[in-house]
Amino acid sequence: MWPYYIPGSILTLTCFTFGTLWLFYELVHQHTKRYASLKVVDNNGNQRNSAAVDIAAGRKSAVGGARTSTAPGFAAGNRVSNVAGRFSAAGRQLMALTEWDQMDEEEQNEVWVRRVRPSKRNKARSLYCDFKYRWRYWKLILLLQKFLLVLVLIMQQVHGSAVTTAVMFGAIHAGMLYLNAYARPYMDHRPDLLSMAISFANVFNAVIGIMALSRMEMSYAWIYPIMAVNFGLPIIALIVGWRMNKARKRRRAAAGKLVGKPVDSTKMAKQRRLVERNINEYTLRFLVSWTSVVVICSCLAAELIFIGQFEKLVLTDVWAHTEPSQLSPSMESCAREDEIRRLEFVGYGTWKGFTESCCCMSRASDSNTSDFTSQFTELWMCRNTTLGRDSVSYKERQRRDIGSLASDGWLVRPFCGTNFIDSTGSEVPGLEPYWDAASERLQVDLKMPNGTVVQTVPEYW
Question: What residue segments make up the domains of the chain, in order of their start?
């Protein structure tokens, strides 16, 4: 089973977990590259860029003049023309670099917002449009946090300690609180402070959980800090974030920090349509390719898991219907009853122990379990630890003679019933089959409510 389950699980984990991370990263990365070609600021309005280009061109002219100190006037026109062409190309490349590199973080974020926020046609922009340019991959960190939380829950099945799980939860949320406080990845102060408040509340709740799981005595007064941290703190964070937004807007307006003149709206709209069309076409192609890979990997993983389950069913022990002929002729008479009980009850010893540890189904999966006349064989599935191994075993119980329909066990027990019945059909809890040495069988008596034996059923019970 495991040679099939492990590759299937690894394939599923790779496709869905790491595949989703790769999907998010690739979309954000490629969209950023395409948005870089969208001109949202007029370069003529940015004096720093023009000065940088002029300085670079002047340096280039000085170097060019030193290298071409030949006879004056010789091919002067051609030389000036060629140098000017090289200067203009170099200047354009330098301008493309300095236009972004000379901006501070706030100015870069302003240009980033002008590029991505108005892009209504780009349906995938929600992956990054709310974040600062530097932290545009923040969705990946959020996905990794959720993956770690799920992993901690799964690991609890291994160590079995709820306190350890709560401690690991608190550590993950504390790490997220530190990252939120350090990065402040959102353009808006409100989600920044709200995410920090929620992370703090998660750490606080983890500490409360550790205290409760450790059976520390806690008074009813703890409800007030719990309510304040989980409800009051997020509300305060939103209000403070709103005030910080207004203060930042006033501060920037007073300082006169402008990246440059906005590009003409008509020209911008036309260029934006082209960029968004290119982004949407790439996104569609990439999603189709990614989905195809995921579907193929999912089908392969499902096939591997199915083969593993099929192998388990084929190789699982199935205890056949018990017959005295299964006993060895050389077996001592004193051991024959114990062997029949072992075969009948799959090691549980009694009918009560067997029914408490096993569940019943029809051996024929397409049969109608409500129609007793169509049932021939019960299939009991047991989690059998009494045999020295923790595994699933199956026990078949034949309920009627296939050759002669006149012989069956419906009189003492209905199909898949866990209790035997009397002659009136009422259940008789605690009734156990008893050993008959003559027939070497476990048999059940059909009794009247007053205890009178009506009939003995030696088999198919």
Answer: 2-38+106-303, 40-68+75-102, 324-457
Q: Can you state the angle between helices 265-315 and 2-12, rounded to 10 degrees?
A: 170
Give the span between the Cα atoms of 202 and 169, in whole angstroms: 8
Report pLDDT for 60.
38
Packing angle between helix 19-35 and helix 138-159, nearest 10 degrees?
A: 170
Q: What integer pLDDT is reported at residue 333 of this predicted model? A: 82
Q: 11 to each of 24, 296, 306, how far by Cα in Å?
A: 19, 10, 14
User: Given this model, what pLDDT does residue 83 score?
Assistant: 40
Q: Average pLDDT per run of 10 along the chain, which is 461 residues long?
A: 80 86 93 87 50 39 40 37 46 55 79 85 89 94 93 88 92 95 93 95 94 87 92 95 90 68 71 90 93 90 85 75 82 87 87 90 61 70 62 83 67 89 88 88 89 87 83
Contact of 452 with 445, CB cutoff 8 Å? no
Report the distance separating Cα 281 and Cα 288, nearest Å.
Answer: 11
CA distance 168 to 336: 55
- Residue 306 has a CB neighbour count (10 Å cut-off) of 12
* Sign of the C-alpha dihedral computed for residues 335, 340, 343 and 346 taken in this order: negative
